[in-house]
């Protein structure tokens, strides 16, 4: 029997018993209040896919074996270096490892599991929320699949690789070149400083097994049409048999409001009479069930939900294009949200922590989050749906190096990134997957393919493709430049003062937004990632000065709204590593300005009425 030691985790944390040789928080950086609640044997046990729910699943988060070896290591290692808490990236404190990998090395995982009895006679899918970046998966020594992309979920059918009895061994090889490669990587760099942060390598979202019948629903899409009081739906079904039927049923609470038989892979329409609309003030969600029927018997079923919500543009009485929600002007105002954690990096330590940031944003009087150059787990978007939070979703950036011009209407400075065919293919593939995988979340109202010219290329082509793929949402062509005359939105960045694109020059054809401003900095002693060089775009010595300056900035926005501004994004939700410009400290333990005062200031803007 292993000797159990008591591990005291950082000051004021509760006491949890683990084998010290297996896991402990790595490093000496600050951690969040939820670090004490992390059970490394069973972290993040919540169901990971709320838009497509089945009961037959098994969470594989927990302690896996790991090792870091030269990139040349192509076969499963004979031995491993220690234990890692999945799904926390290997560089993170909560992984229990805290080591970097880099382009010349690979990260290997291994774990043995026993399948539940109710998986018998079913297909078994191995599901990954996200793995950064290139991973190859083995089951019982047999390669079952390879996936490129650090920001989208994927799965493999591992049924034929399973042993008929006994334990099943899963091994995973991951390579991630961070900023030494052309792939999307967001804010990750091998040398973190300024606005660039620690690398994230390997598994960073939930890993799980799912048992499905031979005929099963593999994906669904639902797109609301508020004006026509309908919901457009599709369902993709694997191994459909002749005579099988797929039935979609919508519920408002316990009341069935619509039902329709649909042909798999084809569009169908559910009529939603007198729809109850979704908005930040009333985030109503309908329940939705897809069922495969065979000779009157249920073969497969998944539970989902949808919202009746419309995002659009229309000129106001002065001829300025406005962004409308459900055919009414709603000023969208909220923070730039990096989605980083001092202890989990890309991964919130607990589901409670994941929800906390959204709840705090709501409590501060905001109705918008711009998810900046990163995606989140499906549960994050689900909470935005439930809590009523509008989301602008960025494409994670990569392959930087072109020239940026942050002023609209300037010729001769901005350049496109001359991407290789490989780089372009990687971008297109992952952006397509992100839009497809996140399509069903009604909170997302704007796609943002480019930010501040980071890797920006073929702008007109990419934006038109994005608009064509999802005409139910708006597309923010290039947040902060380089500016191209395509798409419905023109987005200026300016620090710290709030400004806007000139409505007389741009307002007749484009929605005018302020995609980033503010960035007011205040390092709070005891709550910083680093001891010095903490910065903001304008820095302050105390909370009183910070609140006064924030109030001055926000009070300038009503005049801009009157002129034609439709949305503004303040930098940012929390401090991140060297950045001290958050409403909250990086460890989420200190709010820098009173929530009640922030709510009064911010909600006054989101209640603005423009005819």
Helix content: 10-25%
Which structural class should the secondary elements be placed in? alpha+beta
Give the end-to-end Cα distance, rounded to a whole number of Å: 73 Å
- List unreliable stretches of 5+ residues: 1-20
Count of DSSP H/I helices: 8
What composes the largest sheet?
Answer: 8 strands, parallel
Give the overall silhouette.
globular
Rg to the nearest angstrom? Answer: 24 Å
Averaging pLDDT over every residue, what do you get? Answer: 95
Spatial order of strands in the largest sheet: 31-30-29-28-27-36-33-32
* Count of strand segments: 36
Strand content: 25-35%
Task: Walk me through what this model shows.
By secondary structure, the chain is α+β, with helices and mostly antiparallel strands. The strands form 10 sheets. Strands 31-30-29-28-27-36-33-32 form an 8-stranded parallel sheet, with helices on one face. Strands 5-4-6-12-9-10 form a 6-stranded antiparallel sheet, with no helix packed on it. Strands 3-14-7-11 form a 4-stranded antiparallel sheet, with no helix packed on it. Helix 3 links the parallel strand 29 and strand 30 (444-448). The radius of gyration is 24 Å and the shape is globular.
